[in-house]
Design goal:
Shape: elongated
Order of helices and strands: EEHEHHHHEHHHHHEHHHHHHHHHH
Strand order of the largest sheet: 1-2-5-3-4
Distance between the termini: 68 Å
Largest sheet: 5 strands, mixed
Number of strands: 5
Radius of gyration: 24 Å
Strand content: 5-15%
Mean pLDDT: 80
Number of helices: 20
Length: about 375
């Protein structure tokens, strides 16, 4: 059964986002209380997506690439696909309990409050907090770790229904990357409770949230703890000074070593150093693009633009490759409508043009980065030893 916690005038309904029972529980609770306010665990963007099922089909992949929102978009797709997959096993529409709460808000003329933080901010805050290798691990887990199994046994379903759907998606990485849990669960607990307290009323309030948030939010409400930090929690953390220095220091070292080889050595030594770096950087970016089933034009683009991405970090090789692939094979409406099904299988990821572009973005970037590390190490070895 879904958990219900009532604290003074606030009733929290902890739901499983893929359970028919949760929908009934939400309906029964709101019918019994007939609250003045109904709060739900959605932000404006997800609310609009729920109201407009065709929103995904209108996604402009070129705009996403240029605005550097590929990583948050991929995470959103994974989360939505994961939720849809488990909903199919329970024969319940994803987010049906929220739709019920919205319907009841209209029925009782209750004021609907969207309590959650924007999903893009949540996912970007996670992304900014991870190191390069942690990001690589997360990408690999996303692209290749969701598995092929369609049917889940009863125990697994029950386990998932007792947790937050978003946290469940990242559960395999929870111990190694605790920041994911802190950002996804603890920060959002605080954010939603602050929004509840900001209602400033003694009227009855029903709040519909995932079970993973229930106990944490109940504790904060009992403590009457409004941290007034939502403005802070709504910001995208700036890159640390160390991260910024490293971002520009690495290319400076590469260029410096090559120039020093010309200056302290001779033309031949300098050209050998330059070729060594280009061999690793360009070749690995091109190889990873090829392994991602990129077109010949995309492979050439990766080879040519990888050095540019090193010298000018903002112009990432993945951006060039993705833009070329998007120009060459623009995603169709069918690609967009099939996203959530296709991302569950390795073979269909590369057949879906939209997902293929995203995969090439990450794979070419990863290849170029690994090439830089190996090539840079080789330059140092050649210069000093």
């Amino acid at each position: 059964m879904t958990n219900i916690v009532t604290i003074n005038n606030i009733t929290l309904v902890g739901t499983a986002h893929v359970s028919k029972e949760s929908v009934k529980e939400v309906q029964a609770t709101i019918d019994a209380i007939q609250p003045k306010y109904i709060g739900i665990e959605l932000d404006k963007e997800r609310f609009e997506t729920m109201q407009n099922n065709n929103k995904w089909e209108n996604t402009d992949i070129v705009k996403v690439i240029k605005e550097k929102k590929v990583a948050p978009l991929l995470m959103q797709i994974i989360l939505a696909a994961f939720q849809k997959r488990f909903a199919a096993n329970t024969e319940s529409a994803p987010g049906a309990e929220f739709k019920m709460a919205i319907e009841k808000a209209h029925e009782y003329k209750a004021e609907l409050r969207l309590l959650d933080r924007n999903i893009n901010i949540t996912l970007t805050r996670i992304w900014r907090s991870l190191t390069f290798w942690q990001k690589a691990k997360l990408i690999v887990a996303f692209l290749f770790g969701n598995g092929e199994q369609e049917n889940l046994d009863e125990n697994k379903l029950q386990e998932i229904m007792n947790e937050d759907i978003i946290e469940t998606t990242f559960s395999s990485l929870r111990e190694e990357l605790p920041v994911i849990h802190d950002t996804l669960i603890l920060e959002r607990n605080e954010y939603m409770v602050n929004n509840i307290f900001d209602i400033h009323t003694d009227e009855k309030i029903v709040v519909v949230i995932g079970k993973g948030h229930l106990n944490g939010m109940a504790d904060l409400i009992k403590q009457k703890k409004n941290s007034h930090r939502n403005k802070e929690l709504d910001t995208i953390p700036k890159k640390s000074i160390g991260s910024k220095v490293l971002e520009y220091l690495f290319p400076a070292v590469i260029i410096g070593l090559i120039l020093a080889s010309f200056f302290f050595g001779n033309y031949t030594i300098g050209m050998e150093q330059l070729k060594t770096w280009l061999l690793w950087n360009s070749s690995l970016a091109a190889l990873f693009t090829l392994l991602g089933r990129g077109s010949l034009l995309s492979v050439i683009t990766a080879f040519v633009t990888a050095p540019i991405g090193t010298i000018h970090p903002i112009l990432n090789v993945g951006m060039f490759v993705a833009l070329v692939e998007a120009w060459r094979k623009k995603p169709t409406v069918k690609d967009m409508s099939d996203i959530f099904n296709d991302i569950s299988h390795i073979k269909t990821i590369f057949k879906n043009r939209f997902l293929h572009i995203i995969a090439l973005f990450f794979l070419s970037s990863m290849g170029g980065a690994i090439g830089n590390i190996i090539g840079g190490s080789q330059l140092i070895k050649n210069f000093f030893f």
